[in-house]
Amino acid sequence: MTASIAHEARIRTLDKTRVLVFALKAGGTAKTSSCTSLAAILGARGYKVLVIDLDPQCNSSQILGYRRFRDGQPGIIQVMKQEASLQEAVVQARYQADEIDPEDPDDAYDPIENVYIVPANSNDPDVDEAERLLNDPKCADSYWLREGLADMDGQWDAVLIDCPATYGRATVTAFVALDKNVDGEVIPPILCTLKEGDALVRLEKKLQEIRDLRKYAVKGIQPEMKRVLVCCAPNSSFGRAEHWKTLGELQETYGDVLLPLIHWSGVIPSIYRDECPVPILAPNSMPAQEYNKVATALGFTQIS
């Protein structure tokens, strides 16, 4: 990308694309299951969706069909290293519907309607090196994700970004994609424990730090947490006193911005074994129904 094109990308906005960033500095809070579930639901409702997997665990990529990469297939690391553009790394999301034939492994997968992904390759030797790469002047800078999305503005109705459980440079680049003119927000999926409750406070502090930095403020970059998604909420068959107490505290503190609850279900862990998002794996399950309610609460009604 030339300097003039990069400058243009940095000052224009994503006025045709909604951006949802799933982030929280806590592991195992359902960022991936929420991101992939909502992607599948939005696709089924007629929205063109792009998922971006920034997490070195690569779980969103595996759930959406890319545990294995074709020879030469670029992924998110190649984009960070500026060996491929964000657009060049886009592939259609899919799920495994049949046994894998070593002669033609792609034949075992069915496409997920309207859903695409920039996947992360768990076998890439640099998959755990995002921080080093994004600090290397020969690789992408803080605006690489913002620029790549700006180049594709209008191709997607929604971009869903699955972040690692840190506030390192990879996650910050997702936050930087959210300026005051972008229809977007940071959505923290959170479990009902005190540890994750404290993580919300740290997230709000981090977002304020980014908004206050002059280099971002002059570009109108204003990432905000507008809503909170409570996952693994207690119900009649699951939950100790700690879970119920934390849920009550979350409802008291964030009641006005809480999305519909996602209750605990044994279906959720199956998405990692079966490599398939909840709404396709178990469409009539409680979490599939509840994620549908979340999609509606976010304003994504049926369009086709």
From TrEMBL:
Transmembrane segments: none annotated. Residues 18-180 form the AAA domain. SUPFAM superfamilies: P-loop containing nucleoside triphosphate hydrolases. Signal peptide: none annotated. InterPro entries: AAA_dom, DNA_Partitioning_ATPase, P-loop_NTPase. This is ParA family protein. It comes from Streptomyces solicavernae. The lineage of its organism: Bacteria, Bacillati, Actinomycetota, Actinomycetes, Kitasatosporales.
